[in-house]
Design a protein that fits this description.
By secondary structure, the chain is an alpha+beta fold. Helix content is about 25%, strand content about 30%. The protein has helices spanning about 15-25, 25-35, 45-55, 70-75, 95-100, 100-105, 175-185, and strands at about 5-10, 35-40, 60-65, 80-90, 110-120, 125-130, 150, 155-160, 160-165. A six-stranded antiparallel beta sheet has the order 7-5-4-6-8-9, covered by helices on one side. The radius of gyration is 17 Å and the shape is globular. The N and C termini lie far apart (about 35 Å).
C-alpha cells in the first residue's frame, strides 16, 4: 500500500551560523520528517509567505531559537506567553489521548526529562506534557525548585480546520522527536515507549 506523504514547509529563521546550528542539532529529526513527507525549505518569513501563497502545505515547521514568540500567539488570538526555562521530568497528559487519538498517543513517551522554554496561559486541555505537583527543576548548578503547575513545555491547540503546536525542548530529545511526528500525524519508527511508574501511564 502506498504511504501517504505530508507536504511540509520547513522554515529556519536566523543567520547562516544559526541555520548551521539548527541543521546539526536537528539533523536526525529532519531526516525522519523527510522520510514521511515531502518538504520545502525557507530561510526567511518572506520566502515562506511566497511559498504559502502559491502552494498548499499540511504543516509548517518553524525552528526558531528565541526568548519571545508572544506576538505570534497573539496573531492566533491566544493568550500564550513565554514562561520559565529549565529542565525537569514531564509526564504525558491524559487529555492527549482524546486530542491526538489513542493510536498516536501510544507512540509517545509517558515521561521524559527535557530542558525547555515553557508557555504559560495555556488552557489545561491543550497541554501535552506537564509536571507533577512534586516535580522539581533539575540542574547541576542551581538547587532544585518547585515547578509552576500552570506552565507547559509543549502545547497542541485546535485552530480552525488545523492545529497549532509548540515544543520548547532545546536539545531535541528522543521523546520530542516522537511528539513532533505525532503532531504531523506520522509515527516515529523504532521508538520504544518506556513504561511509566504511574499506574495508568498518563496523569
Amino acid at each position: 500500500m502506498a504511504v501517504s506523504m505530508v507536504q511540509v514547509l520547513y522554515l529556519r529563521i536566523g543567520d547562516d551560523a544559526q541555520v548551521s546550528v539548527f541543521d546539526d542539532l536537528y539533523q536526525v529529526l529532519l531526516a525522519k520528517v523527510a522520510s514521511a513527507s515531502t518538504t520545502q525549505k525557507a530561510k526567511s518569513a518572506a520566502a515562506a509567505q511566497s511559498l504559502l501563497a502559491t502552494q498548499s502545505f499540511k504543516a509548517v515547521l518553524i525552528l526558531h531559537r528565541t526568548t519571545n514568540m508572544d506576538n505570534l500567539w497573539s496573531i492566533f488570538g491566544l493568550p500564550w506567553k513565554y514562561g520559565d526555562y529549565h529542565r525537569t521530568t514531564f509526564y504525558l497528559s491524559q487529555r492527549m489521548k482524546t486530542i491526538i487519538g489513542q493510536d498516536r498517543a501510544v507512540r509517545l513517551l509517558r515521561e521524559y526529562s527535557m530542558k525547555a522554554n515553557h508557555l504559560k496561559n495555556v488552557t489545561e486541555r491543550w497541554r501535552v506534557y506537564v509536571p507533577l505537583e512534586q516535580s522539581q527543576s533539575q540542574s547541576a548548578v542551581f538547587p532544585p525548585s518547585a515547578m509552576d503547575q500552570g506552565q507547559t513545555p509543549a502545547a497542541f491547540h485546535k485552530y480552525g480546520e488545523g492545529w497549532l503546536g509548540f515544543i520548547g525542548d532545546v536539545n531535541n530529545e528522543q521523546g520530542t522527536q516522537a511528539l513532533l511526528m505525532a503532531m504531523l500525524g506520522k509515527p516515529l519508527p523504532n521508538l520504544r515507549c518506556r513504561r511509566s511508574r504511574i499506574t495508568q501511564g498518563f496523569i
